[in-house]
Amino acid sequence: MSDLTPSGTADWEHQLAVRLPQFGHRNWIVVADAAYPAQSSPGVKTIVAGAGQVQVLHKVLDAIVATKHIRANVYLDYELHFVPEKDAPGVERYKQELDALLAHSTVFRLPHEQIIQKLDQSARIFKILIIKTEMLIPYTSVFFELDCSYWNAEAEERLRETIVAAHTRSSESHGKTR
Known about the structure:
Blueprint: E1 3-6, H1 9-19, E2 28-32, E3 44-48, H2 53-66, E4 70-77, H3 91-101, E5 106-110, H4 112-123, E6 128-132, E7 142-148, H5 153-177
Parallel strand pairs: 1-3, 2-6, 3-6, 4-5
Antiparallel strand pairs: 2-7, 4-7
Helix pairs in contact: 2-3
């Protein structure tokens, strides 16, 4: 069951600071709008920041960058691009602020339901931290999928190729001796 914890600014920042050293690749941090639902997966911890979305995003990004063992892939709801100002006053300003904040990040834009599916799948075995903000614009949640900062997909692929090659050589040499 999700643990919904009301927090003051200092408390959510403290909870983030405590969790980041524990988190690694496959953990997630979500900076969510006010209507984001409390999730029921046991690994999901929801805290209420009582602060604005951009302020929380800025602090979360700074904290991730300062944590040497992780980096983040950022997921945004694809729908955000299409939310009009007339239906969601302030959305254009938010999009500009978000673009500036994420200028140096790897950003993926997927339909909301696809992001939620990825998050739900991860929450089955990995911890997720959701920080709810006071944002009142739809499709503005920002999803940080944490990854290892000192190892990347290319290095992993080379490692796997090396293992396969070693296994193949080993199998071939065993076949010759029989």
